[in-house]
Amino acid sequence: MFTPLALLVAALCLALACWAAWFVVADRAVVLRQLWGGAVVEGVLLLQAVVLAVVQVRGDQDVDGLLLWGYVVTQLIVLPVAAAWAFAERTRWSSVVLLVAALTVAFLELRLLQIWAA
């Protein structure tokens, strides 16, 4: 796996989580700019999935494919579901949902790094 890309994903997720936490403290709902931030993270996740697929097809790394792709697919699903939920829920709790989703993707990314290194 391309480690700088993985660290970029984790950093973007943590930045999005901090932004959402600020809105939680301020008792505000998610704004469209935050959802666009989530879309940027999702784009980087898609790029990472393509890179992982190419590296795995070339056979450069021997990892458990089911475990690896389980994490990749889960990452790709979490933010869009959270964004839809946050868009529908126009209260402070939408910011909580986005915060939890961003932290979840960040931790899944760190777990992907561990799986790849094993």
- Uncertain ranges: none
What is the helix/strand order?
A: HHHH
Q: How many H/I helical runs?
A: 4
Distance between the termini: 12 Å
Tell me the overall shape.
elongated
Largest sheet, described in full?
A: none
Q: How many structural domains in the coordinates? A: 1
Number of strands: 0
Strand content: under 5%
Average of per-residue pLDDT values = 92
- Please give the radius of gyration in angstroms: 15 Å
Q: Please identify the structural class as seen in this structure.
A: mainly alpha
Helical content stands at: over 70%
Keywords: Membrane, Signal, Transmembrane, Transmembrane helix
Protein name: Integral membrane protein
Signal peptide: 1-20
Transmembrane segments: 36-55, 67-87, 93-113
Summarize the structure in words.
The model has no long low-confidence stretch (mean pLDDT about 90). The protein has one domain. The longest helix has 27 residues. Helix 2 runs antiparallel to helix 3. With about 120 residues, it is mainly α. The chain contains four helices and no strands.
Throw out a few tags for this protein:
118 residues; mainly alpha; elongated; signal; Integral membrane protein; membrane
How would you sum up this structure in a few lines?
Helices cover 85% and strands 0% of the residues. It is mainly α. The mean pLDDT is 92.
